[in-house]
Amino acid sequence: MKVSHDNGRFSARTRLAVRASAIALSAVASLVGAEAALAQDAPAATPAADDGGQDVVVTGIRASLASSARIKRESTLIVDSVSAEDIGKLPDVSIADSLARLPGVTAQRLEGRDQRLSIRGLGPDFGTTLLNGREQVTVGDNRGVEYDQYPSEFFKNVNVYKTADASLIASGISGTVDLRMLRPLDQANRVLVISARGEMNGLKALNPDSSRYGYRASATYVDKFANDTFGVAIGVSASQNPSQDERYNAWGYAGSGTAANPYVLGGAKPYVQSNILKRYGAVATLEWQPSDNFHSTFDALYSHFRETQKLRGIEFPLGFSYAASGVQQTGGFATSTTFTGVHGIQRNDLNDRKADNYSFGWNNDIRLGDKLRLNVDASWSRATRTDFLLENYTGTGYGGSGPGDTIHVTQLANGIYSIVPTLDYTNTSIFKITDPQGWGYNGTQPVVQAGFLNQPSFKDDLKSLRATLNGDIDAGVLKSWEVGGNFSRREKTSAYASYFLCPKGGGTNCTVASGTPTSEAIPAGAILGTNVPLGYLGVPAVLALDPMYLYNNAYNSYYDNRPSSLVRDNTVSESVWTGYAKLNIDGEVGGRALKASIGTQFIHTEQSSTGQIASVSPAGVVTIAPAYQKVTYNRVLPSATFSLELIPNGYVKLGASQTMVRPRMDQERVTQDVAINIGNIAPNNTNPALNPVFSSTGGNVQLRPYESTNIDVSIEKYFRGGGYFAIAGYFKHLTDYVDPGNSYAYDFSPLLGALTPAQQAIVTANHLTTGPVTAPANTGRGYMLGTEVTLSLPFKAFSSALDGFGFFGSGSYSDSSIKLASNPTQALTLPGLSKYVASGELYYEKHGFQIRGSYRYRSTFLGEVAGLSAAPTYRQVVAEGILDAQIGYEFQDGLLKGLAILAQAKNLTDRPFITYQNNDRRQVIDYQRYGRDYYLGLTYKF
Fold first, then answer.
1. CA 465, CA 545: separation in Å to the nearest integer?
2. Is the Cβ–Cβ distance between 589 and 576 less than 8 Å?
3. CB 3.0-4.6 Å disulfide test: which of 297, 614, 742, 753 passes with 563?
4. Signal sequence span per UniProt (predicted)?
C-alpha cells in the first residue's frame, strides 16, 4: 500500500489509530471485568441464546435488537443490521430512518424524507444495495438507491455489511446494504397482519391546492401448505405521504467580502412547496422444499409511486443584476441592502414524477451429495421513471420593460434574508404572463420564454444469472469451499425532451423576431387565490396560479433544439462476468473459536455507451452526429475476514480486502456538447488555453471504477444479560478516484469546416484549433479512516426493577483526504462525510406498552443537491440533530388480543436543512424547513 503521497500525515494518523485501539482494548477489558456485576440479576444463561446468553422470549423493540445482535455476533463479516419487530413492522417510518441509527450510517434528507445513505462517510455513489442478495436498479438518475421506493413493511431485516467477502457480488467500497424479505417456511404459524396509519404534517398546507394529511395501509399474509413444504407470503401496501417545505435559495453573493466591497445577496428564490407522494406496492414469496435435497424460492416485488410537487414563489435578481444602495455591513458581509428597478419573476411550478420498480428472483438450492451443493439464482430488476417539470413565469413586462420594484433585503439570524418588495405581486393589472428578464434564447436568437417544460425519462434494466458450487471439508478447521460465477447486464437509458413555452398569438417557434407576443394577460380561470404564505421571508402575498391550466390554455410550445439539450440522450450498458472462489474456516485454534473466509473475485467488464455529439456553427447550423464507444477491463479483488472468540462471547473481527465501485452512470456516457466561441477567433489571441475557440463537455466511457484497499477491525463483547458493546476501526486507501471536473486538451481540427474561410485562416495561422474537453477521469487518490462505537444495553442488567428499559446508541468519527491531479496541493473532503455522527435511543417495552425516544446527530458534510437545471452539485450542509419519538400499546389478551396502537412523531426538533458555500457559514444557499410529522396507526395480527 502506497501512502507516501500524504507527506507524512499517514504516520501521525496511524499513531492515532494505534492509541485508539489501545483505548478500545482497555474498554473491552473493563467491560469483561464488570460483566458479572452487569448480569448479577440475570437468570442462568445458555451460550446459544439469541440475546447473548439469556433464554428469554421477547417481542417488539427488544426482539428487534436481539435479532440484530445475533446477526452481528454470528457473522464472520463486520455487519450491523435492523430487524423487524414483527411481521410487516420495521421499527421506524422508513427503511432509511432505521438504517440511519446504525453506527457509521447517516441519511441525507430530501423533500423532508430520509432518502440517501452514507456509510462510513462515503456517499450513496460508493455503496451498493441488494435485495435478497441481488444487485438492484434504481429510479434515481444514477446508481444510488432512493430507499423510499421500497415499502418498509415488506422486509424482515436489513443488513449493512462493512467488510467484503468473495461471495458478496457487487459489494461497495463503503458497504453493502442487503434488504431481506421474510421466508414463509421460517414462520411457525399462519399469520395475517393488517395495518393502517394516519399522517399529518405540522405545517399547514402551504399551497391552496394541497393537503397536509396522508395515510398508509398494508396487509401481509403468510401460510404454509403440503405438510409445511410449500410456503406463501404476500404483502400489499398503499400510502399517501404529504410534506410541506418553506424553501429559500440564494443564487450566490456579489462582491469581494471586504469593507469597501462587501458581499451582497446576488439573487434569491423563495418558494413554498407542497408535496404528495403516492405509493402502491406488492410483494410475493413462494418457497418450496419438498425434501432436504431441494429448496426453491421465488420472490417478486412491485412498487409504483407518483410524487407531485407544487412550488410557488418569486425569483429576485439582485446583486448580480442591479446596483445596491443603503448597504449596511459587518465584517465585509452586507446585513441590509436596497435594490431598485428590480424585475422579479413570479413562479407557479409543477413537478410530477411517476416511477415503477419491478424485481424478480428465483433461487434453487440442490444437494448433489452429502458434501456437495449447487445453487442457481436468476434475477431481473427494472425501473422506469418519467418526469413532468413545468415552469410558469409572470412579471411586469418582457425583458425588464414593465414597472420595476424596490426591494429591501435584511439578513436574519438564521443566515437567510428577509426580502420585502414594494409592488403588489397579486395585482393582475400589473403582472402578466411574460419573460420578465428576457432570458429566453434558443441558441441563435431570443425567444419569449414565459414558461419551460422538461420531460426526461429513464429506464434502468438489470438481468443476472449466478451459479455456485460449494462443498464441505473434513480437514480440521477447514470447514468448506465455494466457487461460483455471476453474469449481469445492466442498461440505463436516459431520454430528454424540453420545450419553450410562449404566449399565444402570432410568430413562429416562440422567437421575438417572428412577432411572438411578448406578454399576455393572466386568464381568470388560472387564478386559485393569493394566500400563498411567503410572509416568513417578508413577501406579503403572491398569486397562486394553476400550472396545468396555463399549460393547456395559455401557451404555444417550441421544441428546445439547442445542442446542449439535444446531446443529453444516451444509453450506458455494462456486461459484467464475475468469478470467485473462497475457503471457509470454522473450528478452534489454540482453544479459541475461529471463523474465517479467504477468497478472491475476478471481474471482467464490457462497458459501452451510445449517444450524440452536437455542435453549432457560428452561422447557427446545428450538427448532430451519433457516437458509440466500448471498452473492456479486468479487476482482481482479494478479501479475507476473521472472527476469533478470545473470551466467552467476546470477539475480535478482522477484515482486509480490495474493493471497487463503478462510477455514476451519467459519467460513463459518450455524449459531448461542442461549443465554438467566435469571439476568440482573433489574431491577438495568444493564449487559446484561457480563450479557446473550441471547447466541449460530456462524459467518458473510458472511466474505470473507484478502488479501495481496506483494513477493518471490530472488537465485540456480548453480555450474558443481553446487549453488547462494540468498537470498530477502519482505513481505506482510495485510488482511481473520479474527478468530475477533469479537463484535457484536444485538437478540434476536424471542426474547422464549420467556420468561414476567413475564420479558418485565422484559427490555423494562430494555432487555435486546440481546446479543452471537460470530462470525468480517474485522476484522484486519497484515504479515509475512522472509528465506531456501539452500545446496546438492556437496563435489567443493573436491576430486575428496570426490566423493559434499555438503551441503544452509537457514535463515529471519520476523516478523509482526496487529492486530484488537476489540483494536487488541495485536499478535498469526501461527499457525504460527516466527521462526527451519533445516535441514541432510550426505550421501554413491557406488558404491551412501548415507548421510545431517539436522537441522531451528524456534523457538517458535503451533500448532493439539485443545482442549475436540476444538475447534481455539492454544497456544505449544516450540522443537524433530529429527534423522533413513539408510544404504543399492544393488547395481550381478551377480545382485542393482537391489536396494537402506535403514535409516532418525526423531526420534533423541527430542524431545517441548510447549505452554504465557500466554507463560509454566512453564505447560506439553501434553507428548507419541513416541519414535524405525526402518525397514528392501528395494527391487527390474526
1. 52
2. no
3. 614
4. 1-39
pLDDT per residue as tens digits for the range 708-735: 999 999 999 999 889 999 999 999 999 9
Residues with Cβ within 8 Å of 263's Cβ and at least 6 positions away in sequence, in order, are 253, 254, 255, 256, 257, 332, 333, 334, 922, 923
Whether residue 21 has pLDDT greater than 50:
no
Q: Are 852 and 843 in contact (CB under 8 A)?
A: yes
CA dist., res. 20 & res. 906, Å (int): 35
C-alpha cell at 174: 463503503
Q: Give, in order, the Cα–Cα distances in Å from 423 to each of 299, 524, 533, 591, 886.
A: 60, 20, 17, 83, 47
SS3 615: strand
Q: Rounded to an integer, what distance in angstroms lies between the CA atom of residue 405 and that of residue 427?
A: 13
> What span, in angstroms and rounded, lies between the C-alpha atoms of 776 and 729?
31
Which phi and psi (to 5°) does residue 152 adopt? Answer: -70, -20
Q: For the range 529-532, what are the long-range contacts, defined as Cβ-Cβ under 8 Å and sequence gap of 24 or more? A: 529/208, 530/426, 531/208, 532/206, 532/207, 532/208, 532/272, 532/312, 532/313
Placement of cell 408510544 in the chain: 887
Amino acid at 429: S
- Record the pTM: 0.87
The residue type at 295: H
Helix or strand run (H / E) with residue 328: strand 324-330
> At CA 48, angle to CA 46 and CA 52, rounded to 5?
80
Question: pLDDT for 215-235, tens place per residue?
Answer: 999 999 999 999 999 999 999
- 26 C-beta neighbours (distance < 10 Å), count: 10
The span from the CA of 99 to the CA of 106, in Å, is 8
Cell of 171: 459489494
Interatomic CA distance for residues 563 and 569, integer angstroms: 11
Structure letter (DSSP) for residue 632? E
Q: Give bridge partners of residue 298 from the DSSP assignment.
A: 286, 362
**Cβ-based neighbours of 487, under 8 Å, separated by 6 or more:** 464, 465, 466, 575, 576, 577, 578
What DSSP string describes 45-113? --TTSTTSS------HHHHHHHHHHHHHHH-SS-EEEEE-SBTTB-SSSSHHHHHTTSTTEEEEEETTE
Amino acid at 88: G
Query: In angstroms, how far is CA 487 from the centroid of its own chain?
Result: 26
| Cα 181 to Cα 301: distance, rounded to the nearest angstrom | 10
More confident residue, 14 or 306: 306
> What is the residue whose three cell numbers read 398494508?
218
For residue 219, give Cα distances in angstroms to 195, 236, 280, 284, 451: 6, 5, 12, 12, 44
The predicted structure's pLDDT at residue 100: 83
What was the pLDDT predicted at 88?
66
CA–CA gap between residue 637 and residue 581 (Å, rounded): 11
User: What residues contact residue 828 under an 8 Å CB cut-off, 6+ apart?
Assistant: 782, 817, 818, 819, 820
Q: Shortest CA distance to 464 belongs to which of 302, 576, 604, 601?
A: 576
DSSP-derived secondary structure letter, 205: P
**CA separation for the pair 574, 588 (Å, rounded):** 43
The single-letter DSSP state of residue 44 is: P
Q: If we measure between CA atoms, which residue out of 779, 520, 477, 805 comes closest to residue 644?
A: 477
